[in-house]
Amino acid sequence: MFRPFRLRAVTLLPSIVGALLATATWTNAQSSTSLFHGLKHTAIGGASLQLDSARDALEVHPHDPVGGDGVAVHVDEATGWVARLRVTGPPASPLKVAWHAIADGRTISTATLQRDGNRFVLRAAFTGATKPTYSASVYNDGRLVASLGGLTPTANIVVPEGFCDTFGSVGFIACDLVSEFYNDIIGRCAWGHTLPTPGTIGLPNGAQVTGNELRLVEEVRPGGHYPYLSFDAIMVLTNASPLTLFAEHVR
Amino acid sequence: MTRLRQTSGGRRIVLIAGLVSACLLIAEAQSGEGTSGGDTTVFDAGATAFGRALANLDPLRWNEFRADKERFVRKWPQRGPVADAAACVDCHFLDGRGPKPGQVPSGLSHLLRLGRPTGGGDPIYGIQLRRTGHGVPAQGQFAVGWEETSGRYASGERYSLRRPFVQVSELAYGPFDPETRMSLRVPLAVFGLGLLEAVPEPQILEWADRGEADGEVVSGKPQRVYDPVAGRLSLGRFGWKAGQPSLEAQSAAALFHDIGVTSPLQPSAFPSAVANGVETSPEVDRAEVVALAQYLRALAVPARRGTADPAVRLGERLFADIGCGDCHRQRLTTGHVPDWPALSHQAIQPYTDLLLHDMGEQLADGLVDARASGQEWRTTPLWGLGLLELISPDAGLLHDGRARSPEEAILWHGGEAAKARARFVVLRSGERDALLAFLRSL
Q: Tell me: the pLDDT tens digits for B45-68?
């Protein structure tokens, strides 16, 4: 199911070298604002941004060990944002990524992915409903394999870190994923996370299913709901070292 | 052991307090005290409180509501030739009373109405000075300044008030007519309007008649305005001087006067635009206006907060005792609304009588709007007042935003409300705080 380590290491080698070189020279290249794939990116907190034109990547180097730094992607009344990204961290670190969708100057939804031992815990929160809940659907190569509704912001979805690669003698970890946020046609907010390979995903009801894609969709009860039509920015806060954006699209 | 006993006792106290609070909340819910919009009420004390769908909205209307909101937030491509805004949300951010803080020129928090003591607008500029032009010059610009004044409560504490002054510049078509007066206005919040539209006319007129028959100082006057939908005079309900009779008329007027979009209900262009040879055929059809009105109709009223707080309860009594409730009527009941069962037969608490009242010289703007004189203003609904500080922090209260707090708004009341103001001024400090706590709970 997973690629052999040697292949992973070879695949990751350029990024390791790149990361090391970047660490050595980044004082010249770091900035607080970057234009990447036509989108304005702004550093948050003590983070610095570094454009890597050779890899067509934007590296986000946070300083806050608890994940208060990151990057804001300005999308200006978009209805969808999707990015391919890599989260890199030292062995056994409490690696964390938090995505915030911003509209009207405030957070309208969040998703967090936090390392806990040899697994990641995924959570989400939405604000459209006065009693906000969401559904989680797991897909395997595009086919729906499980779905569960009524989830609250404290519900844990467990994703084993098998989709990540380890490298180096001390076991650094690098996790690739495609992350997405969108407002759908009936005014719901939704997060999507696609992993490079399928793994056993644990749902809050105890079910274990094999899949590579998770869709977390706000549950809409029309009465009393607040319809979000678009969003203005995505903030990605992390303690990764670094977080690398490889591609981004908005609609 | 001692520590354990104390902890156990503390837990008991917390548990008992929790049970009491729960009982109070249940009692409040059962009495309907906090549900200002009846069954339509939503429970949200945050930034989205004014923008939620009616709690009892027919699910079949959800997609329509969402689509109608798109019209409310979009920039109208047909806007112009002169306008103050490009989208409804430019002046009603989060469905509230002003622009997005820090995102648009501060001038958009106000508009400048023009009129004459005999009625009607300026012969060249119309009833509003528009600050942007599309293919023609903007009509002009204005800046708002403030003069501070101060006073003292009977108990000795000082208070400060501010009064606006307006400086007009860059008038593109020459000076105003000598008779023209200016009136600074801030936008009104747009939630709960479907409920106010659904209050049967006789219920409102009953208060107007009773006031006059009793010979009381407080005597509400019904506004009468032309209703372009019905094609006749109707009761005015919406706007600072109740100048609009329905949400359809209100939407068409806002599209025209604020954004510069003509519709079958507001077909004519501005005199200054006509002078520039601008076409006058309607730019949008009536369905667009209806959709905007439907969006407003479906916006819910947020529930009150803290109604069990003793200070809030005391404030509520004082509100009635000093006479605020003579105009800010707590309870109304909606009638049957065809095609809108969610809005029908709801016991609501808007704190308005929807009538015009003489508010005294201090608040007078000298503009006549149908039956409303320069000193007369519609009683502003108070529901949602406590959330304005969060949602529209820069808007201010009263028609020109001069009041920075409900306290200042009360202190500006005059005319028919002078007695209520006088009673407020002699309240003890704690009583005033209680009254203000009540207003913040709305």
A: 999 999 999 999 999 999 999 999
What ipTM does the predicted assembly reach?
Answer: 0.83
CA A195 to chain centre: 10
Dihedral sign (CA B205, B209, B210, B215): positive
pTM: 0.86
Q: Is the pLDDT of residue B232 over 70?
A: yes
The tokens describing A74, both together, are: 């300005």
Q: Do B93 and A104 touch (CB under 8 A)?
A: yes
| pLDDT computed for residue A16 by the predictor | 36
d(CA B432, CA B442): 16
Residue B75 CA to residue B87 CA, distance in Å, equals 5
Query: What backbone phi and psi angles, to 5 degrees, belong to A132?
Result: -75, 125
Phi/psi of residue A234, nearest 5 degrees = -120, 125
Read off the tokens for A229: 């039509």
* pLDDT in the model for residue A129: 84
Buried residues in A156-178 as b, exposed as e (16+ CB within 10 A): bbbbebebbbebeeeebbbbbbb
Mutation site for A-interface testing, chosen from B66, B75, B295, B390 by largest number of A Cβ within 10 Å: B66
Chain A residue at shortest CA distance from B59 = A222
H helices of B215-306, in order, are 247-254, 271-275, 286-297
pLDDT band at A168 (very low <50, low <70, confident <90, very high): confident
In this prediction, residues B351-373 reach a mean pLDDT of 95
- The Cβ-side half-sphere exposure at B257, using a 13 Å CA radius, reads 21
- The pair phi, psi for residue A203, each rounded to 5°, is -90, 160
